[in-house]
Amino acid sequence: MSICDYDNPKLMTDDCLKPLRFISSDILQLKPVKFLAWYSFVVHFVTDLMLLLFIAYLYHDPKQNVLYIAVLIGDYYPTFATALVLQDSEKVAHLKDELPLWAIDTAGPKHYSRIKLETQILSVYSIVTFLICLCGCGLYMQNLSHDQEWFFVLKMIHDFLPDYYAILSSFFRLSIPFFGYAMILHAMETIYYTQHLRYQIIMFNEYIAGIGNCRQGKKEDDLFYDVEYQEEVDRRLRFCIKRWDEYLGAYNNKLKEIKFMMVGFAVCGYFLGISIAIIALSGVVTPDYFPRHLATGLGALLTFVGVIMAGQALETEMEDMVLVINGVKWYNFNKKNKTLYFTLLMNLMTERRLQLSENYSINLELGVAIVKGIYSIVTVYTNMDMRKNF
Q1: I want to staple 22 with a disulfide (CB 3.0 to 4.6 A). Which of 26, 138, 343, 388 is the partner?
Q2: Ramachandran region of residue 217, left (φ > 0), alpha (ψ -120 to 50) or beta?
Q3: pLDDT of residue 390
């Protein structure tokens, strides 16, 4: 007999990804954090615009401009992330309203143990990433020896308002903590979405596998004519079709929400990778900057890998779902149930991905493409720099 309850599956009352939810949503509801988001966005938008104007019309030091531009394109990522926060800071909070989430023990102890372990790993991952982010923010708040070479606005303050450098530079540095947090925020949101949806698929697969397991002890030859068996199969098939419709509704809504977001982050993440690589190869990184760049690089790597692996894991689980539905012994079903079964089968066989474009989804293929793109740009930059030195 199936261990699944096809009448009233147990609903989730306590979020199994609490640390991830706190980092990706709850903290944003605090008024001081909202104020800091607005403050940071305005400061960086204005300073980035100033940098573009000065480089275009007034400032003509090619070597220094490369460094400033590297910092500028690296700033696109947190600027875009902060703009999305200001537009809607409660994306994560709506998930339970869109899809009734089953409790993680709904499909039995085997799946409960698996999901529980994964939620614990994700909680540790999210906390470690958040702590690295906080450490990085603290390091960027410090006044280091060559900051004027990195941050154009600090050079402008030093050159034109030297008497007010201490206080004005402090105002600029106050914008850094939220931008550091914004670097990981939407990656955490995406991981939160995808893994909750994935856990629902894991449990749903158990329900699919149990569709025909409702009359154990009976000979298979007798099941076709067993009225009670056919009625129970009918009930279970209809339950699974209804649940899949609920899931698809939530999945499609979230895909619409994050599609623009993830396209933007793929582009900005590409620029961020180029920025980090150019800065590392610039030759002006002194030892006192190593901790700062280590925190930046490690935080960027963790969020990049986390999002790519989360998307790939969801995609893999959906592919496994097709194998599960194909394993159902449908040949014992009557004509009506076979029709329902093939309806469900056709729905599940439709490919579902976190599609960003016709060619790319959030999966390992996208990760490899981004890494290759960054490597190509860095190679071109390195070759150009070597020719100049030669």
Answers
A1: 26
A2: left
A3: 45
Q: What is the pTM of this model?
A: 0.86
| Residue range 170-183, pLDDT digits in tens | 999 999 889 889 98
Partners of 11 in the beta sheet? 102
Task: Return the sign of the alpha-carbon dihedral for residues 27, 30, 32, 36.
Answer: positive
pLDDT category at 93 given cuts 50, 70, 90 is: low
Cβ neighbours of residue 160 closer than 8 Å, sequence gap 6 or more: none
Rg (CA), the chain: 26
Query: In angstroms, rounded to a whole number, what is the distance separating the alpha carbons of residues 70 and 183?
Result: 16
Q: Quick one: average pLDDT of 257-284?
A: 73
The confidence score (pLDDT) of residue 58 equals 63
CA–CA dist 160, 59 (Å, integer): 14
CA atoms within 13 A on the CB side of 240: 32
CA trace torsion 337, 342, 343, 348 (10° rounding): 130
Q: How far apart are the first and last CA of the chain?
A: 76
List the domain boundaries for the chain.
Answer: 18-389
Q: How far apart are CA 68 and CA 64, in angstroms?
A: 6
| pLDDT value at 119 more than 90 | yes
> What are the start-end ranges of the H helices in the chain?
18-24, 31-57, 62-87, 95-98, 109-141, 147-150, 152-160, 165-173, 176-209, 220-223, 227-281, 290-326, 335-349, 364-389
Which of 383 and 137 is assigned the larger pLDDT?
137
Contact 357, 263 (CB under 8 A): yes
For 339-386, write each residue's pLDDT tens digit: 999 999 999 988 777 776 667 777 888 788 778 877 776 676 566 655
Angle in degrees, CA 296, 298, 91, rounded to 5: 80
CB neighbours of residue 31 within 10 Å: 7
CB 316 within 8 A of CB 372: no
Q: Provide the token pair at 215.
A: 């009359």
